[in-house]
User: Fold this.
Amino acid sequence: HDNILIISSVVDSGSGSNRLNNNRSMFQIQGETFDKRLASVADLISQKKNIVVLCGAGISVSCGIPDFRSKDNGLYNNLNYQELGLTCAEDLFDLNAFSEDPRPFWKFVRTNNFASGKIAPSTSHLFLAWLDEQQMLLRIYTQNIDGLEQSAGVDEDKIVYAHGSFKGATCMKCKAKYQSSELRLMSKQEVPVCHRRIAKKGKISDNTAKTNSIEIPPERRSSRKRSSNNNSMAEEFYPPPVEQGCCGGIIKPNITFFGEKLESTISRRLEEDYKKADALIVMGTSLSVAPMSKLVGFLPDNVPRILINRDIVQVMKSSTQNYKKQDEFCLFDACLLGNCDAVTQAIKAKMSNRDAKSEYEHYHSGRLVTDNNNGTWLKNQPRESVLLFEGALLSAATKEEATLPAQNVVVHCDHCENEIKDQIFCCKICFDFDLCSLCYPKVKLTHADGKHEFTIEST
Ligand code: CNA
Assistant:
């Protein structure tokens, strides 16, 4: 699990679903009209006191921060990576690429004001703050690194930054910690470097040598190939000069790059929340980055799951952690497809029982998916559970775009930290705990006092 895993595309699961077929208690969207079905979703949310939210880049798109994978405006399709000095857009958040040359990343951060603290939260962020105010929110697991949930007013304790945030930074060399206010100033430099004084005599940064390049163990290095002939910034990177006696190490914001471990506290927190969660709202995420994508399958089956996204997304059943079985999918109890700002505004209006026209006009153009009979419906998601809002994209549900996710999965043993190359022993209880065949025999006895069962998978 240790690395963030990329599952490249949404998958169509063929017929049937675990949740529907097993007759588990499932929330039914009631009503013949769009308005009644929306009210039904709003009613459901209103009754909950411990809502878990899993959110992603989509909720910050209206703040001017592009997501990764949207075909129209997403970074992966639109980033001028060559101009930045990268081989591909995915390298922007790749630890190996950053360690080789942090300039593209920092240039991107400056251009997009990531560390500036100047970006205002969206209606969707404010909706989350409102849920918190109503004491309905148990936790937000955000994959976003922009910190806008907190800017919107959500209590800090209610937010888990699954992939870290710009609220702090660390020197890669001496591990000195920097606060967001310091990071804000430092991020104006081409590459922020550590200005902490070195206490004792030792290595002092020398700008003629790569003394402050980031050290990452070879096994964590990405296998992605880089071209040698890229572009304007392709000349060798040397750390900027630093004052004598200062560390000079490269500063890395406290965000999780591809190729890095997620903090184990995230899994522990989720395991605690498991017992309390009474609803799950998934917002603005393609669910293509594991392990967070597994949260949807991890929560108990009787927890209603609501999707707010431009398109339908699906994930594999994660409790078995079986990435290869096509037929193990979780379905959402309701899919509210469209721009999440319009959707959240509509839900909030319904929950507040307000019918002022101005509140309604954002979603009065809303439709039931049954009104939209174009194309073959390929997803398992029952049509009656899908509501369409402004900005909805149905193509993923009606076009056979992908059948299987690319198995670009790297799993590391939670004990020895080596990459698992053969069998993976996955804990059935923990959110994200895997062992290799060498560690399994000894660790299974100590892990949770030997009380947790494991399943076996092959890589
Ligand atoms: P993604 O894979 O790019 O998916 C975004 C999803 O949001 C897609 O399914 C879109 O259809 C949907 N979407 C886009 N715009 C809207 C909208 N206005 N309303 C509703 N839905 C919308 O991004 P994920 O978050 O799933 O991937 C996780 C990555 C993205 C994390 O590691 C993040 O760090 C990373 N990321 C974060 C930010 C940020 O912090 N704002 C920006 C870009 C990428």
About this structure: Residues 34-46 form the longest helix (13 residues). The longest strand covers residues 164-171. Residues 56-58, 60-62, 65, 67-70, 74, 143-146, 163, 284-286, 288-289, 309-311, 313, 339-340 surround carba-nicotinamide-adenine-dinucleotide (CB under 6 Å). Residues 7-25, 204-232, 318-328, 402-408 have pLDDT under 50 and may be disordered.
